Amino acid sequence: MESAALIAFNLAILGALASPGPAIMAMLRAALGNGRRAGLLCGLGLGLGAVLWSLLAVLGLNVIFAVAPWAFIALKVAGALYLIWLAVTLWRRADTPVATEASPAENGLRLGLLTNLANPKAVVFIAAIFTTVFPEMPTGREAILVLGNHLLLEITFYSALTFGLTIPAVRVLYMKSKAIFDRAAAAVLGVMALRIAT
User: Is residue 104 part of a domain?
Assistant: First the structure.
């Protein structure tokens, strides 16, 4: 595998990580609302979900979607329903103090994993990266290298984001405006869910 291809893959993934979407919303909620441990676990869940999409892209899931478009539609609807549920839950709990929420840190991993798995556009995007960047789909050791590299990128990015978000001054600012922030995040997730569904 050429190093230029791996660098191009990394730049494309980093661009995707930095763009606003459900994953960033989940990270903001976990890290600001529930602290560093929850943020790190959410980042791990997001990374595992993204790498699972990468694995499925390597295995050819995008081909399956091309042959059976109904499978992609079903996945889109399921993903949109999850994001709507997440948005409604966030909206309803906006006035709830953080301390009274149940097991927030443990929920971070689940939140991250489900958020990334609920975004079926991720597999199409990742498949596009693979087909654009690599002359041939990586297999064997090359595939393991690319997937491991992808997981490392995800964990590094979300860990850095978590540490930035859990700076005491940032967290205090969030706590003061929790209801406004949570309702705004819920509205954004709702719009994203509608975009995914349509």
Answer: yes
The pTM assigned to this predicted structure is: 0.74
Residue 102 sits at φ, ψ, to 5 deg, of: -75, 135
The SS3 of residue 6 is helix
Stated as kind and residue range, the H or E segment containing 37 is helix 36-59
34 contacts 101 by C-beta, under 8 angstroms: yes
Question: How do residues 76-91 score in pLDDT, each as one tens digit?
Answer: 777 677 778 777 877 8
Q: What is the pLDDT of residues 101-159, one digit of tens each?
A: 445 555 888 888 888 888 766 776 777 777 777 777 777 888 899 899 999 999 999 99
Residue 110: domain span: 3-11+23-197
120: in domain: yes
Domain count, the chain: 1
